[in-house]
Amino acid sequence: MAIGRPSKYKMFDNKEWLYEQYCVKGMSTCQIAALVGADPQIVRYRLCKFSIPLRNLSLSHTHNRKDLVLPDREVLDGNLLGDGSLLLRNKKTGQGLPSYSQAASVRDHVEYVGSLLWRGNVSSRIGKGVTKGFTKKSPGYVYFKFTTTTSPSLLPFYERWYPSSEKTIPKDLSLTSVSLLHWFLGDGTCSYKKERPKEQRSMVLCSESFTKEENEWLCSRLESIFNIKCNTIGNAEKGTDCRIRIRQESIDRFFDIIGPPPVPSLAYKWKTMR
Questions:
Q1: pLDDT tens digits for 45-59?
Q2: Res. 2 pLDDT band, cuts 50 70 90
Q3: Phi and psi of 5, rounded to 5°?
Q4: By the 8 A CB rule, do 111 and 124 touch?
Q5: CATH topology of domain 66-162
């Protein structure tokens, strides 16, 4: 089937052949053009003439690349409840593929997360930076950041967590012991109360990025799934800066569920009494 002016490369006049190479075999315009020594723009022109949908720029760069991302739902959900984030370069159009990023103040934390989400050399995906200080007396601190490449396997997670470009708790979120562990590693604290018996502890899940309603929903899930008693704390009137406080009677149960600390530098968070 030919369309328009015939090409000097006869195979480019065959829609079925072009469709087979580009859509079925997944070849790029450069690879198809190389078969006969043609200019890739000629291939692109013929694809458009035949109304064969072109891949967007992001897919063009990644469709033949080996995907090294391991989209572990429990690990991703747990870290996205905390400081983890999915990044989409072109937020205005919503096109392209997301990458996953995890920042932490200790390197072994991001190395641990990276080892669960990346098939390749994790160290090659970790960078180092310094945050800006809030005041002159409060300087910034060093942090480490693990970032994956863009991946189609992360797109369903982005659509769940960023339905309108802002991070939102997905309604199909199913908390597990693994997701709870990663949430606590990234955004949980546990400390002994000052001037109180050592048995008195304070455990908080820092979840200020979510609304009061979302925090209350998370509390209901913690209680219904794990029988963990908790409540929201923060600005009740404005419904902002909310956190989740685990009650005294449920702290040991919380630690029983998430297990021992997998990251040595964060073991100080485990204020266990058993």
A1: 888 888 887 766 555
A2: very low
A3: -70, 130
A4: no
A5: Endonuclease I-creI (3.10.28)
